[in-house]
């Protein structure tokens, strides 16, 4: 007997059709939620990388200023040694005392200028180092925020696979924590 005129439908097919006609599937909501989380994650990740780049820039500036200060201190010491030698020559050989005294004044003046330059470069190095620390301070909070956003994406994905709404609530809570930490990082 042919069964061409009859369609036998199971409960599963009826449930799928019922869900398709009467409400928006959970998976669509989760996909949209995940897309928003991915966008937020990209922004938080960019900001975290930006803080690292700024910190490295200022740290490099601090090292450069410290190297220049070190050079200035070395020149200062050399000029001071020359001044001491000129003073010693003036004491040992009174005949050349006036020339040695002139040299001593010249070396003392250069030493004062080099000392001022070295101190200024040391100050700039310390400022750049402090700026580096300030630029890096939000990084840890941003990294933790990104972790919470990634957890939220993972929970949302599991929620889509298992159709468990309570996992979506966990994803939402994790996302809120991530966003709050991101905002706190910049306050």
UniProtKB/TrEMBL annotation:
Organism superkingdom: Bacteria
Keywords: Coiled coil, Membrane, Transmembrane, Transmembrane helix
A Pfam family matched in the record: DUF4337
Residues spanning the signal sequence: none
Transmembrane segments: 30-49, 142-160, 166-186
Keyword Transmembrane: yes
Coiled coil: 104-134
This protein's record includes keyword RNA-binding: no
Name of the molecule in the record: DUF4337 domain-containing protein
Organism: Sphingomonas echinoides
């Amino acid at each position: 007997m042919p069964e061409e005129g009859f369609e036998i439908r199971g409960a599963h097919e009826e449930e799928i059709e019922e869900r398709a006609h009467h409400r928006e599937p959970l998976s669509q909501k989760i996909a949209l939620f995940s897309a928003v989380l991915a966008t937020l994650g990209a922004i938080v990740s960019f900001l975290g990388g930006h803080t690292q780049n700024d910190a490295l820039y200022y740290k490099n500036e601090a090292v450069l200023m410290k190297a220049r200060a070190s050079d200035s201190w070395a020149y200062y010491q050399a000029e001071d040694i020359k001044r001491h030698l000129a003073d010693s020559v003036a004491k040992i050989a009174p005949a050349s005392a006036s020339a040695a005294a002139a040299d001593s004044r010249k070396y003392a003046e250069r030493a004062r200028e080099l000392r001022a330059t070295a101190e200024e470069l040391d100050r700039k190095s310390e400022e750049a180092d402090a700026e580096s620390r300030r630029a890096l301070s939000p990084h840890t909070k941003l990294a933790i925020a990104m972790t919470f956003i990634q957890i939220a994406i993972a929970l949302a994905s599991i929620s889509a696979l298992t159709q468990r709404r309570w996992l979506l609530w966990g994803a939402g809570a994790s996302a809120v924590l991530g966003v709050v930490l991101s905002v706190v990082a910049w306050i």
